[in-house]
Records
---
Amino acid sequence: MNPYLEGLRGIQPEIVMTITALAALVFDLLLKGRESRRVGYLTLTGLALTSWFLLGQWSEAAPRTVFGMVAVDQFGNFFKLFTVAALAMVVLLVMHDHREREHGVGEYYFLLLGASLGIFFMVSTNNLLLMVLGFELLSLASYSLAGFHKGDRKSAEAAMKYVIFGGLATGIMLYGISLLYGLTGTIDLAKMGASDGGLVAQLAQSPVPVGIAMVLILAGFAYKVSVAPFHFWTPDVYEGAPTPVTTFLAVGSKAAGFGVMLRFLGAIFLRPGVADSVAAYGDRIGLLLAILAAITMTLGNFAALRQSSLKRMLAYSSIAHAGYVLIGVSCMTEAGFSAALYYLAAYYFMNLGAFGFLLYFEGVNGNDSVDSLKGMGFKAPLISIVMVAFLVSLTGLPPTVGFYGKYLLFVEGVNQGLYWLVVVAALNSVVSLFYYLRVAKALFLAKPADREAAPAPVLTGFVTAFGVATVGLGIYITPLRAWAERSLDVLRG
Amino acid sequence: MQDQILTWITFLPLLGMGLILLIPKTSLNLIKGVSLAATFVPMVLSTWLYFGGFKHLTPGDFDQARMAGDILASQFVQRVPWIDSIGVEYYVGVDGLSIALVWLTTILLFIGVIASFGMEKAGKAYYALLLMLEVGISGVFVSLDLFLFYVFWEIMLLPMYFLIGIWGGPRREYAAIKFFLYTLAGSVLMLIAIVALRLDSGTFSIPKLTELAAQGKLLGANLPAAGELLGMKFTTWVFWFLFVGFAIKVPVFPFHTWLPDAHVEAPTPISVILAGILLKLGGYGMLRACFPFAPSAFHEFAYVLAILGVISIVYGAFVALGQTDFKKMVAYSSVSHMGYVLLGMGAFTVWGMEGAVLQMFNHGTSSAALFLIVGVIYDRAHHRDLNAFGGMSQIMPRYWALTTLGFFAALGLPGLAGFVSEALTLIGAYQAGDARFRTLVFISLLGVVFTAAFLLWAMQRVFLGQKNPKYLDFEEINFRELVCQAPLLFLCILFGILPAYLLDWMHPSVQNLLAILGGKA
């Protein structure tokens, strides 16, 4: 076949996504602000089509690279499917957010789709240049999304903070990448760690320059997934941004950040036939990440203890969860990466559900404080009971998907001898129980509230479906785990 | 049916819970009926299991079972793969250690449901949570797969949190979260130990792990730093991680502080279940999933365990002496009584070990009866101040008679159940043949004296002396309250006279356990 056509076949999902984004923008103009829900349906249709192509690629056996840049493989596919699923939920949230009628909905969907397109490219390439491009596309779209409520001071502040922090982090990362390029003479990750690659020669001379480059690059990734000490933007941006955007940042964008991190580390250090000196160097980076993991989860959990806003609490909790995922990354083994992937998938279900709950009660109460939930569990029983399931899963108790995720992380941690990290993580889940239970306590342990909660059947339906998945996938574990395992085929070469 | 009987016992309450969720909350009588049925049937099944189905094994049977790969010689085994990729099975069975506790669980939950009928606030959610609690408890007792064991262990926490937190007393929120945090702190440590065991051995099967440990093949060199970690043997780390998780549940001094709070705030039926069975999970867990996995560490620290047990006995009784709250007094008496369990296990003699297992059962009946007794008077007076009553024996003579029986069972009067188990543990500890253990026995006798003191003193303050004119119109104990208490007190008398009806069931498995742990059986 014509290699050009073959290449286009490889990026079918991306093409569909781009068309959808443009169509959403135009369609909204044609509708002139009336019936804006239709744009949402259009976006959902586009996403369905995208995932159809993605699933088609999923069953293809051999990973390949098209246009010399885009890697079509299961690993990228995992994160793309993940992003599409997250985005679809976010779109549904946007359609049921009472505040969104006032704003230009076409741009909203356009920006969300643009951000997702960035994710698509950044997770499916071994080429540092394309990785940075995707990274920037995601970031720029996210900045605008964070400030989408133009009249809202908090939203504007969030966007500003995000831009400044993001600009700095990207700059640092680019500097690291340019160093790495200078040291190794290539921007192809696959070639760096090979036994005849530039990295081996550099490490033989001195590990310091490589170390500086690595730390700078990892700092850029750490910012995206809000790992301490690059997490400072997270609470403010999450709180100020519209709730559906927060959901997207907390789930889609964070997972993508981990996707890039895993591919970067995996392609250099875990490739079959990697030189010994490079693999040994990877272990040292693993130790650095383990220390960051411990700091991140402890900091996130202790900061979450003091929050009175549910949204901010979930922001800090998402920092803590980044710390948990980092356990798997820091093992620097295939099993560790697979555990991290599984945990991200678990995180998707429980966190999207929790954000759906948040959005519902923002509509009911007009604010996001935990206190305003007092006694509401008796007024909206279904969604509140389901929320308890999410809280249980976020804490990591069985029989939920979150427990199994944590279990897999612990297994690989113990297997790699990171006992201290596993103990820190275990104690952290006790701390996290305290603030998660505050929500359950407000809902059910107070006297029934004297206000009524307006029913929102569709939103409640989504959230309940996620609750069923959170518990169901905690009992029937095999499919999700098989999926995470399969995604790592690309590492086996 | 017989192969699946344990599954039915465990999951029938879950079925009941599902049904209750479908019933509208206004049909309270239907909800009560379903809860009653969903606890009654498992009770009938487990009673049959205890008296009919369960075979008394001979040493020959144990040898055979060992050859067949089940060192515990469990009966009514059901084994189905659950999570293939990591080798988790749905693997259940009972042996002499667990059978009595399964029976006790089903009895106490049934009584708990009847006792709940007196609570006005108890509705749909309450009964649903109560049934979910039963699933967790029964599940722990029948699990033979460590992963499954842990899952059931954690399933209990949430219903208990809500049962105390929603239907409890004035400080219920504090008590509920304290209970949850303490237990979780212990169980996350357990999880780490479980992960280590699994990675080392490649199996979650409790019999298999027990066998490997007995052969000295567990926690060998399959893990990084498996030899020593921070100056402590790896086996010892695993032992303590598991032990602390279970000790919090027992609760052993110094992990006991959640118990008085939880008991005082919990509604009566929940206190009954908490004291009656939840505490036994700790003791049972040690015998099932702590000592057998690290026998060397157990022998090394047996004396420390015995000391902790004695501290619990004496300290618990002493603190109970100082209480003015009736329920808090009974709660501390639980700390004291559960101390015997640890002392008996630490002594590591046949009598000590049997006494410990027997004490778990007997405390289950007597402490449950005591909490019901407290509930009766609290429902009438709406306070529990021991000093504010007086002369109740003349106002409620039948209630007084039952209370006397319950108190005597708790303080270990010969002829009642508590005496047998306490005597066994103390004799067992004495037999350990060691001056150190003998000293402990003498110290723990102090606890016996304190126990008699606080119970008799409470009896005197509440029931004897001048009638308090405020309480003259109290009605006598009613039929529902009687129905709850009578079976428990009956069991106290029955097993006081015929302890063989418990001991014969336990004896083969206890012998087997001692042999596995490599002792003086």
Note: The longest helix of chain A spans residues 153-184.
---
Amino acid sequence: MAELLDIADRFVGRAVAGEQIEVVVVHERETEVRAYEGEVESLTVAESQGVGVRVVSDGRQGFAYTGTLDEAAVAEALAEARDNLTFATPDEFCGVAEPDGVEPAVLDLHRAALADHPTDAKVAMALDLERLTREADGRIAGVESAEYADSVTETAVATSTGIRACSRETGCFVSSYALAEQDGETQTGFGFSLGREPGDLDIARAATEAADRATRMLGAVKPASGRFTVVLDPWVSAQFLGIGGGTLSGEMVQKGRSLFVDRLGDDVASSVVTLVDDPTDAAAFSATATDGEGLATRRNVLIDGGRLDRFVHNSQTARRAGTVSTGSAVRGYASTPGVGVQAVSLLPGPRRPADLIAGIDDGILVQGVSGLHSGVNPVSGDFSTGAEGLRIRRGELAEPVREFTIASTIQRMLHEIREVADDLEWLPMNAAGVTVVIGELTVSGI
Amino acid sequence: MQNESHDGPDGGAPLLDPGLLQETLTVAMRTGGEFAEVFVEDRRGISALFDDGRVEELTSGRDRGAGVRVVVGDTTGFAHTADLSRTGLRAAAEAAAAAARGGGGGVREVVLAAGATPAVGPVEVMPGDVPKADKVALLERADVAARSSGGAITQVAARYADSHRRILIANSDGLLTGDSQVRTLFSVSCVATGDMGMQTGRESVGHTVGFELFDRVDVGDLARRAARRALAKLEAVPAPSGEMPVVIGPGGGGVLFHEACGHGLEADLVAKSASVFAGRLGEQVAAPIVTLVDDGTMAGEWGRYAIDDEGRPAQCNVLIRDGMLTDYMWDHLRARREGRPSSGNGRRQSYRHLPMVRMTNTYLGAGDADPDEILAGTRHGVYVAQLGGGQVNTATGDFVFGMTEAYLIEDGELTYPIRDGNLIGNGPQTLLDIDAIAGDFAMGSPGTCGKDGQGVPVGDGTPTLRVTRLTVGGTAA
């Protein structure tokens, strides 16, 4: 890790008078095993690295990156970044971050146990996952993919303004995609388990979940169109949060590209909605103590009891808004720092999902959505996605349904959230899932 | 005009010495591998963003490295490295061989024979030779054109990007080949603000050509089209909900076929019975007017290449002819197992990824219907002028795609613009439900197809067509 910071320091040290330099260095080691029909289908052992260089001068920024730590290549990137900035339009708010005195949280995100875990044992986990998925139910006809994947990521950020940040994280997960078959019909289901080291993973649970989700869809029919109470399961609500979180980016708001423009302080959701972005929560898969500009991350309450409280900012959008960074710069080595949520979740409620479902006379539990990237417009707020799940009749889960869409606007859906369950779970993304009841959405089927 | 020497200071040098490739393959095969391959890539690119009335930034990037794979039985071992020295390549070859776990041992010398590389599309103006100022000037022109389209245009973002990707592939069958792929892209996104909220409009153009793209594409026109789209939607009514006929405009419908059956015809998914089209070769899978082609050789198109990322020349593959399923798409590994040639569809995002079966330019052949008559013959439905992205579950065939410019059809005429939304259908059913195809074929916008976390550039095209029944996922009754 010291080595990455050394590289960053060396190039930051080349800043001339009136020039700011920011260097981000990333190194990642990955293992990925895929199993198929009792054999290893593929095993990837890889190491990647890269360096991004941002130079700011006279309110203009230029950027360049290279996919190697090689000194000559980084020097070339620095020269390119300097050249690139000459074409930018001056902007008084442009600049790298300044130290803000906030101490990064001490998070235990790196486990030596992951790197020490023998490859053979990782291979065995993928094979076990595939076998357990096939054995979970007589109707499982195959497993499209059964995978173990892990990564050890080290990041260093340094700037000529005095920022020096390092982080080191491990993460791993298993995921299984089961194919269930009956009477010539095929249905699919996904299951996973994640953690910071292989010992955290619950392979049996991932296998069972994939098989259950696939088999419960057998015999699914297309529902009638209409307006229904819809329950989103944790996997689905997390995907909505991940996409919806983008609308709370200070950059999107400042550029007039968010449905929340001019809504700060307004009641934008029902009172049961408290939305928190907290990368300092070590339980989050995407937890991190420092952000893409090297500032400490922090817990940000974005929507508090339905009221829009705050947007997330990096240092540049914060300057423009006359506020301070919320530690929300997001980036890889190949891009300048953007702004985004990093570990977003809804505050869970007191009741179990089954209790919520018991109170619904006629509705649909959605367990999978598709086409989110094409179906959610973060500017207008219109959304419409493909869905599958189970009907809810008289408080009980009933027959499976598929090939329908759920639609509304984000604005309306937020006000329609009736209740949030107690089953909060972090997923392999920048959001946690939790069961949520939406009073009314339009269902398009037959 | 295509010439490696046009690519800056080191453009003319070979990516890697053939002797070193041969040595790396020999190391990779040392533990009893049945097949080994070295894929070397050097990609340079620049992108420039004009947003919020400013040239926000230019980004230059370079990624260079090699991926080594070794196949033993049903197992593929893979490793990659950014270190193209002898030491770096040897380490990657050993790691890939160990991962594939060849038990046999023994030495198999690999001898490479440089094959004739198929002719690549001519690049007239290498983007690397064009001053950055000229690229920035295009962005400014687009911004002015979009903003002058109407006072309701409140935000404009324009992006320019070019890339030059050089690849070199050597494998244990003795293959040694390479390609030089130049792509140029321009896009404009607008926001319009009205009494009923904000709406968006987007247009993009991308081709596997150099900067000469702008000799025939006026970025001002492109920007005005994006702006018009956003402005038109300010008056949009909620989209209808439920099953109805859907007419798709020329160039707009490629995504539908990409999702409805394209992915389901990829041999890797077919082999795992994860496709509704598995075991259906030779069967009638679509209406007899449907002929679907995947063509990696289409000059200048976004999904075009001379060779795929396994060294196989691109082909024009007819997938469905007159409604009959004629073939799937194949990569090296799947084809090798079936004892047949690859169809030139083995692609990967970068040297850091394993190749798999991917589409190139997928299009529906022209029919003989009159587009105006198709519309006039539709009493009540939806006309989609521009589609957004889509997604498919190949095992069930259920697919969705977005509409980013669409209108209500009432009594055979377009009436109101409708708000964005998704449509959903089932691939095998939708192919049978196509009842009219016009002769006005056009290619659509450049796309990026995602599969298993890898994105590759793809093109698509269709004439005007009608599907008798799709589910429109709006909110209106």
Note: Confidence is low (pLDDT under 50) at residues 1-11, 102-106 of chain B.
---
Amino acid sequence: MTDSATMSVTGRLVPEPVLAPTPILELRDLHASYGAIEVLHGMDMIVPAGGIFAVLGPNGAGKSTMLRVVAGLHAPSGGSVLLGGRDVVRARPDELARRGVCLIPEGRGVFPNLTVEENLRLIGHLGASMSEIEQRTYEQFPRLAERRKQLAGTMSGGEQQMLALARAVATKPGLLLIDELSMGLAPKIVETLYELVAQIAQDGVTVVAVEQFARTILGIASSAVVVTTGRIVMAGGPHEVESELSGLYLGDTGA
Amino acid sequence: MQDLLAYTIFGLVTASIYAIAASGLVVTYTTSGVFNLAHGAIGMFGAFIYWQLRFSWGWPAWIALLLVVFVLSPIFGCGLEKALMRNLTDATEATKLAVTIGVLVALVGAATWIWDPNLSRPFAAFYQGNKVDILGVPVTWDQLITVGIGALCAVGLRVLLYRTRIGLDMRAVVDDRALVLLNGGRPDRASMFSWAIGSMLASLAGILIAPYIQLSVVPLTLLVVNAYAAAVIGKLRSLPLTFLGAAIIGLLQSYAVGYLPTSTVQWMQHVPDTIPILVLFVALLVLPHQRLRGHTGRRGRESFPVPTYKMALIGSAVVVGLACALAPLLSTQPLFSMSSGLGLGIVGLSLVPLLGYGGQISLCQMTFAGIGAVVYAHATGGGSPLGLVVAFVVAAAVGALTALPAIRLRGLYLALATAALAEFCDTFVFGLSSVTVFGHHIPLFGNGTLPAARLQVPFVDVSNDRVYLVVLAVIFCAIGFGIVALRRSRHGRVLLAMRESPAACAMLGLRLTTVKLAVFSLSAGIAGVGGALLAGLSTQVAPDQFSFFQSLPLLLLMMAGGVGMVSGAFFGALALGLFSTLGTMSSLFSRGSSLLPGLVGIGLGSQPNGVASDIGAGLSALVRRRGAQVPAVETDVVTEGWDEQCIEWEFLGMDGRISRREQQILDDSLGLKVG
Amino acid sequence: MSALLEFREVSVVYGGVTAVDKVSMSAEAGQIHGLIGPNGAGKSTLFNVASGLVQPRQGTVLLEGADITAMGSYKRARLRMARTFQQLELFGVLSVYDNVLTAAEIRRSWARDHSDSKADALQALERTGLAEMAQERSDRLPTGLARLLEVARALATRPKVLLLDEPAAGLNEQETRTLGKLLIGLADDGLAIVLVEHDMDLVMQICSVVTVLNLGKVLLTAAPDDVRKDQAVLSAYLGSAEVNV
């Protein structure tokens, strides 16, 4: 069987743009709870390698929890998470990170009291050389080059998210998980950020993005799912999903 | 002018030592989140080991120094982190502090056990006798070396944190622990490294300061309170501010020695010693404090059942019965030990409403007890029960007075403020022979010890020690009963509510200040009564009976007994009595008498509820087993049954599940979203 | 009816970021006022300003016409404002009943009347449907019920103004419906209720007015039906579709 995303000899998740069907990420009947409360009630989801996969749905639906489970931050109470065909439910987050799964958590992707440069330097955990990282990053994100000596926390919200993206990209991830990149940002800035995300995806990184700005993300997504109350209620192409959106967010008829 | 220069130089020497100690505290606290109250004890231990190598075995100074500072201390720090501190992330502030106090007390116990405190140990400074002349002021080499090492530490820490990889990791962990984990980093390694650095700096400070004060265990250990002041000025975060704080304290202290009339005005004698403590107190008070906000800190794992009057009656009967049965049997020494254990147990009871119900940490209960003892000794000629009332009232008033400024502090800062108060009383107030307030002359300890009459009870011969044990037991039970009644009343519920959520209480219209003030005075009053009864036991009062250090084992044993329950205080009392009895049996035990409470305190990390609730749960389980079926406790189903699926990953080295500690950090900082 | 609670041009700044920007809104007696908006819009911050946990940089907060902007939290509560917390702030070690009883007792201590705290507590439990689990320890409740308990505890202080922060999160449909009925009943009793909630069906059904916040600013204050039709609101929730790839 040929995998479209396989574990290479070194164990890193490497995307291989081939035709075969094994998805880069697959959730099978995933259950997760916090204490006695179940948040994910059996979630099935298939993310093909390549492209941007949008996860939509109202607050509290369990989207963030799903990402946390995938990144190894939260142990599921049932079901499995397959990365390139292998079950990873017991893997530690730092090990998953070293193997190419990168999560940008909601609203806190940077170290505010470290400079831009130091934020990038921290990636050294993953074995990349610093000069290479810096060179590549500043090429791709020229705005950050201007601010390399500045504390990350003093930059604007958009620039901070840009740094978070840059750091994520520099780890050369196979699978990039993004949680609410747009949180608290003005629409113009969100658009710029998602242009960057689209570029990252074009370079061969599979992106799973949880996003409340549904229209924005659907403009660049290759497929999408809608999650409500811990279950996937709709899956399909971006256009199919978009037509159903307003009802999902602002409620059905007011009867 | 010459004088000024000389005092400045000496001030800088002290400042360097404080700076070294305080920067170690700050590095450890910011990186690992545990404020190490045992920092001074580590320094003390380091100094003793250095003495052993250098002066007892005659090793060359530099080998001894390198071995202690660069080998033994980091190993000890790493061990401490791995064995204890790593598991404390989800503990309450009180438990964290208790564990470090446990380490402190255990180290003190171990040191007095190994090195007989009755021998004098000369501790020569580096290159003793060598001097240079700076602008006409003779300066010893040792002083120059100390200032040099201080400067070196400042530069070294700066380089470490800003120029090295591990330093970057440490700063990243301070910033956002969860994100480090998500980046593939290991926050635990940074924590461990910070403990190693902290221990090194502590030892270094201990070795440098030892020539200036005598090499004795407790003073060396508690000298770190002076470093707390510098660390608090640095808001426990900023190293440059910490160094600045150390400079201020060192210089102030040195100028006070030089320019205050300490030798001519008798009460001024100890004022210079109190300066760092006063600075600490002031810094705590003027520091911008956190506004009350929702979701402050972690909810504790500690939980205690609501006591019933029936249980309180049975318990009282058991305690009094035990006292009656033991009183005729025990010989003089064990009888005294058990009696003093019970007396201390009454002081310990004061922690039940304060810490157990209200969640307020206090490290100065023995100080309140001391105030009660002094008042009792002076107020009653013949041991009238009225003396207890006066002791209660005065101690409560002092408690309220000290709580008033400290009331807006919480958790760690409150603990530090109470430690400062206790140290202030030790070094200054208890050393005075009398104080004059608004023209009223109030005698204190006079010239060391103070005679105190024993409590007179009608129809009973209290001069008999055996009878006094029973009297103590009855009073213990009476106070315990009052505390049970408090817990069952609306005031008890309010205290628990305040501990659980101050923000919610405020939003229900509760004025937190009033409640805190009330519980502080009540607690101080009870401690005062305990002190008065202890004074009556030995019929004399000495200040060292009520020192800061005495509060620590008491706190530990009360927490180990279960500070949320009256029965916990009884177990604490029993343990204190037993440990002290052991102490009278062999001189070896008596020297290491604080080792046992220390070890008990260390154990609190894994068992924060204390034994009383466990015993209680065990008993009630026994009762229930005979009756109805006990419903099964919910088990952790998350991990079971996953092993087979993980085999492939284990080959790739991905077998380690995320630890509970890491999970806690992540849940905390990522914001647990349930919905 | 006049406004019981009123925000006038309130701004809150956190370390250079304006979380709430000149927000004005008012809650009237007998009304349920919905407060909605995407994540990070500033809803909870506004609640914290109302309850005194956050000081606004600018603007005033009025309770029954009196300026309470600088007043301590406990004094506001004594002017009969109560709130619930999104991140639960229950008295975990106390039972459900004791949580509510403590609230009623605290109220009696500052109101200095001779009301029966136990009766108040029981009434609050019955209204919220929690009477059955009165003896349960509150930290063992599932979140949905724990949120209801927050409501019950607030009710036990007999408030005039009630601020609810996502009370329906974690409730099932049946429970949500019960909550909706309860809130309507409370409004009929004359309470002014401000409701932050993500369950739009609930908001649209029970609120008489809805204010939409976005990026710290008021986007719109209107009747529920008008809010639903508003294009600006829709883009606030869904974003724009103008990413150039």
Note: The longest strand of chain A covers residues 37-47.
---
Amino acid sequence: MTETQDVATRPTAEVRRPERQVVLNPPVDIYEDADGITLIADMPGVSKDRLNIEVDKHTLLIEGEAHLDMPEGIQALYADIRSTRYRRSFLLSPELEPNNIDASLKDGVLTLKIPKRAELRPRKIEVRVD
Amino acid sequence: MFNRITAFESSLFDEFKRLEQEMDDLFGRWPWPIGIRSAARGAFPPVNVGATSDEVDAYLFVPGIDPKTLDISIQQNVLSVSGERKLPRDEKANYYRQERFTGTFRRAVTLPEDVDPDRVEARCENGILHIKVQRREAAKPRQIEVK
């Protein structure tokens, strides 16, 4: 415990990159259908209480903190993933209704359904045959 | 709790990355031979391996995969995990991005030689598969008494 903290606060690391932390960009699938846009993000290790979704008029931000169950005194031998912090943001477009986003999280996969404003959903145009 | 994990992570992995980058800068590429079973960067699933004197812990990042469908095996000190991730695709939708991995995968990781393949535990939580392998007694550091 004390040892890991000492290493983390070593002055060289602080000087090199103050305030900056490695952030993981979660891979996403994004698709659109008549009802809206669906965004699916892989965020393994994130549980509901460590997930944060923020929306304003123009942007959608998803962030999360992964938890790994690590024993005391563990030392890394190999690492593909070098951070526990996920963050990615997206620009929304005006026809979307950011106040009605439906979010679900299962097995480290986040699914967001962003509906389109009802009046802007595509309508089928009937062709009248006279 | 968070702080501890974050501090741990950044200390270990940032440092590792920095070292690797410095090496890249110096020599143009990683100067040491790579593991014979190692995969190219970006391979699925990503793996982290750590060790204490008692155990070796492997973490595989397998979001959205039912752990029961995974084939996990250990032979001597080589841990293999294979499976398939099927992503249902909505044919009527317009896809803008498809960055998530789909298809079959297999990864093998060479663990330290003193692991005991008979004492393995695996559990999966929030899309992280954690495999814990105990090390043999002989490998643990022993206290040496001065007479």
Note: Residues 1-19 of chain A have pLDDT under 50 and may be disordered.
